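Quick question, first post here. What does this chain look like in 3D?
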Amino acid sequence: MTMHLVRGMSSINTKQRKAKGRTQADRDAQAAHNKWLRERGVHPSQLKAKLPHDAKGRRLGVGNMPDYTARQETVPTSDRIMSTQTRRHENQYTGNELAGIGTLHKSNMVPIRKDSNDAKEIARMRRG
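> Answer (accepted):
Ran it through. Tokens below.
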């Protein structure tokens, strides 16, 4: 599938368009919105005055940065990591359970146990 432009659009016209100014209705709406924000105390200029700043007017952080330096008053600890549990028993195949591997439906390999009729069912292409 190829990519197409919308009908009437061209990608070769690269001249910049002249930015249009705001209309009187837009300026009135912005002034009304600013008045509404000031009445509620959430105008950006009001919020900026509430935030902490230094004598030169530079913005300060809201909270103090936590002290992450290493403290020497603690009890010395060891770097050794000890295991907390014993080694898990690993199962080992003894060789007397499986008779072989059979193929069932589209190369689906299935184990055949000695104590079941799986070989007969696989020969009939049925699952038991």
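The radius of gyration is 39 Å.
The chain is about 25% helix and 10% strand.
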